[in-house]
């Protein structure tokens, strides 16, 4: 036992409240926390435009992504959702802006051998990252809010309706 200079004795846990075994739930009795794949979208989406995505990681709302939220708050009257931001149309969805982005991409990396819609979708994703996060680097990837992914897919749909989605970088 430790003694202080005044002779008081300190005992471990002496100030901790005593447990009540009848009212305390044990870890075994607690239900496991629900994942976002199991939850209703309204439980984690606060903008009202998200939908359930295929993996846990992709189920993200624009209002819980700091870089996206920062961009939303730069507008005089911030929108409720990133898809309502006036810059999203100009930066990520405008075909002429994407054609310009493609010219820059092609100068650095070469031609994209994709269908027109897939190329525009890819460039829209890249433009969104650049607009919200800036330059990330070659193998750095970020997860987009569900609402933004759905908006870009609605603008530039895949003919087959199947999308690849987020893939972590290969190291």
Q: Hey, roughly how much beta strand do the residues contain?
A: under 5%
What is the rounded distance between the termini?
52 Å
Give the total of domains. Answer: 1
- Mean pLDDT comes to 82
Shape: elongated
What structural category do the secondary elements indicate? mainly alpha
> H/E order of the elements?
EEHHHHH
Helix content: 25-40%
Q: Sheet bearing the most strands, described?
A: 2 strands, antiparallel
Biggest sheet strand line-up: 1-2
SS summary, helix count: 5
Total strands: 2
Radius of gyration: 24 Å
The unreliable regions are: none
Structure overview:
The chain has 171 residues and is an all-alpha fold. It has one domain (32-155). Helices cover 33% and strands 2% of the residues. The protein is built from 5 helices and 2 strands. The chain has helices spanning 66-72, 86-93, 95-109, 116-132, 146-155, and strands at 2-3, 9-10. It has a two-stranded antiparallel sheet with strand order 1-2. α3 (95-109) packs across α4. The chain is elongated and about 75 Å long. It starts with a strand and ends in a 16-residue tail after the last helix.
Give a short summary of the structure:
With 171 residues, this protein is mainly alpha-helical. 33% of the residues lie in helices and 2% in strands.
Question: Top keywords for this entry?
Answer:
elongated, 171 residues
Q: What does the secondary structure layout of this molecule look like, with pairings?
A:
Blueprint: E1 2-3, E2 9-10, H1 66-72, H2 86-93, H3 95-109, H4 116-132, H5 146-155
Antiparallel strand pairs: 1-2
């Amino acid at each position: 036992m430790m003694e202080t200079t005044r002779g008081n004795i300190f005992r471990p846990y002496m100030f901790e409240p005593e447990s009540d075994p009848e009212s305390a739930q044990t870890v075994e009795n607690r239900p496991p926390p629900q994942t976002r794949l199991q939850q209703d979208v309204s439980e984690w989406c606060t903008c009202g435009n998200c939908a359930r995505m295929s993996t846990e990681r992709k189920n993200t709302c624009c209002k819980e992504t700091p870089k996206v939220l920062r961009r939303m708050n730069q507008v005089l009257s911030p929108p409720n959702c990133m898809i309502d931001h006036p810059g999203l149309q100009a930066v990520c969805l405008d075909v002429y802006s994407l054609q310009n982005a493609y010219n820059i991409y092609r100068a650095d990396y070469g031609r994209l051998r994709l269908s027109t819609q897939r190329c525009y979708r890819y460039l829209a994703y890249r433009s969104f990252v650049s607009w919200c996060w800036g330059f990330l680097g070659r193998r750095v990837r970020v997860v987009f809010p569900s609402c933004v992914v759905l908006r870009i897919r609605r603008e530039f749909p895949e003919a087959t309706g199947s999308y690849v989605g987020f893939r972590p970088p290969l190291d």
